[in-house]
Amino acid sequence: MKWIEGGVCAAQGFKAAGMHVGVKTHNKDKKDVALIVSDVECSAAAVYTTNVVKAAPIHVDKEHLKNGKARAAIINSGNANACAPNGEENAEKMCAAVAAAVGCEASDVVVSSTGVIGQTINVKVIEDGVPALYKQLAHSAAGSDAAASAIMTTDTVKKEVAVETTIGGKTVKIGGMCKGSGMIHPNMGTMLCYLTTDCAISPDMIRAALLETVTVSFNRISVDGDTSTNDTCCVLANGMAGNAEITEKNDDYAAFVAALKEICTKLARAMASDGEGAKHLITCTVNGAKSEKSAETMAKSVIDSSLTKAAIFGADANWGRVLCAMGYSGEQFDPEKVDVHFTSAAGDIEVCHQGRGLAFDEDVAKKILTEHDVEINIFMAEGGGTCTCWGCDLTYDYVKINGDYRT
Amino acid sequence: MKWIEGGVCAAQGFKAAGMHVGVKTHNKDKKDVALIVSDVECSAAAVYTTNVVKAAPIHVDKEHLKNGKARAAIINSGNANACAPNGEENAEKMCAAVAAAVGCEASDVVVSSTGVIGQTINVKVIEDGVPALYKQLAHSAAGSDAAASAIMTTDTVKKEVAVETTIGGKTVKIGGMCKGSGMIHPNMGTMLCYLTTDCAISPDMIRAALLETVTVSFNRISVDGDTSTNDTCCVLANGMAGNAEITEKNDDYAAFVAALKEICTKLARAMASDGEGAKHLITCTVNGAKSEKSAETMAKSVIDSSLTKAAIFGADANWGRVLCAMGYSGEQFDPEKVDVHFTSAAGDIEVCHQGRGLAFDEDVAKKILTEHDVEINIFMAEGGGTCTCWGCDLTYDYVKINGDYRT
User: Fold this and answer.
1) Which tens digit of pLDDT belongs to each residue from B88-118?
2) What is the pLDDT of residues A216-250, one digit of tens each?
3) Do B52 and A335 touch (CB under 8 A)?
4) What angle do CA B317, B188, B287 make, to 5 degrees?
5) How far is B348 from chain A (nearest CA, A)?
6) Are residues A263 and A286 located together in one domain of the fold?
7) CATH number, residue A198
8) What is the CB neighbour count within 10 angstroms for residue B79?
């Protein structure tokens, strides 16, 4: 398996484009609609937000993906099409516009939106823009780049990756792009992720692979504990790699899932690292918990703790907050069997041993915590459960960005 | 029932004091130990943090209050005596020092600590300070004031209240003081609350009254979602009002609980309003939910949402975040039956009707949200459940305070 260029256009038969059509009214330089089209029909699956309040495109996608097939995807930024009048009708119009250009059924198109909640989406500018967008489609790194740029909201960096691996003797490529920085939480905060692959795999198996992957990647990150109305992670697999179609959980399936997990973990880390206003990527690993689930619950509690996040922003080795966040996670454990380390490229320091504070060099700790990538490594003696989750620090800029997002 | 002066010294037979003994080393002007003593033995009860990691004083208090009796309370700020060596031994030493001065058993003394986690408490300065502290005890507003000041950490205002009511034909007084601003969360964030009353009430009934009251007051506030290791709410009832002792849930019990709820709700609101860095008190009421419990879960989710909190800081009428926070609360409901209003002394505005955004005057909304006390009023059509919770906004100062708390 190796990292390659090309993002969502890395796999054979996928073209992408992105442009400004006018959903974002304030800044004409900002792209606001992305399009991905496969040369042939794909096995397709998606997972969505667990929020009771779901944006209109999610209801539409659930219908369109019932047969496990899709050909294209359209995604806009600037408006979430959630809690807004005529939401589903407008989401369907976006699909119909793409279908007309591609020459497929509207039900072969998936759709996502991200942006402000509660305002009617200007679907007219999208419909009018689709023909031009379609003309710009390219099977190239530039095509992926344009699409990945067009789905950004408060993201500061574009997020796209691709890998190449061998499955059933054939070279298979998987690419992905995502957006999301605020409202990211386990079980999907406003994040959109689109994955494309030329692997031949059945609708059932691509769905299973996606669920398995999301559980250990996107569902293990958190920026602010909020879970949005729009989160969607969608995968399109067009089979053009020519491998024997994966129709059961065999070795080929395992190889595919392994590659998908690599892609999604990298995208998840990129999202956490680009959390709104974030200055640090925080990686928290709990070792030796009763179970993986228990380790996950505690690691999530730590990366969700506003106090821990603010401490990391201040490069303050306040491990008491780490232990405290584990303590209110709902998991039962013996605090007197917990060790806590802070680790980064600048070194490693044990700050808490068996639940008690250690005398440590504050300057060394400060140096470790000043690095961009900071690890909180927790060792317990409850069992064999281990889990890693990712988050970011809480900064002045987070408050600034979210104190006035709409205007 | 009427509000009166005197705080924890309002009730007959209670004396209090507060002074600097040296737990806080940075600032000698800041009081760091408080003492409350009753002239006679009290029925006593306490509730504690649900955090698995519990500070040493909590373990000691659980022992000391097994018989439902106490005579005095000592509370220090500046060090939490949590996750620190010899924690219980040091907490017992604090009780013993008070017992020696008062002339009672150490087991008749309750103890609380608040401050930094993981550092050994300087119990020597407390033991040395107790005789002087004891001498300063006064049955006066000044005594309560000194005690309430001594338990403050990052609090910006002292919090003490008292009420007078009639029970069984006698005048009964209840007073209270509390501290807490960061780490406040439903089920008690670092908050300490001490309540005193001259009501005659049995240990069983004072315990029942406390549980009932905490559930609808302190457990309905949140500052940052973190739950601390030290939270304690303790009540001492010395019976000096001379009413017939309350030994069952009769009318006298109901009258006592009503007064206790008034006190505790006022203290809870004061804590939310004084959340670290807070510029706004947010009161969220959910009406028409399936049940009171369901209303509470949704209201808490709204006041815990970092995005909603940041929006209120920015006076941004971003009601989509309110609906979104309800949606991920875990409660099931029909979003198309939800109305959202923002209300304050400056007016009331409906911003969402039946799950859809309304066109509203942004200037009017801004004016409403610029007030210190802001209400988010939610109306659903699921049933008769109603609940009010309190929180505060998320500000630059919260990040500043918590980015460097230890140093």
Assistant:
1) 999 999 999 999 999 999 999 999 999 888 8
2) 998 888 766 566 788 899 999 999 999 999 999 99
3) yes
4) 40
5) 19
6) no
7) 3.60.70.12
8) 25
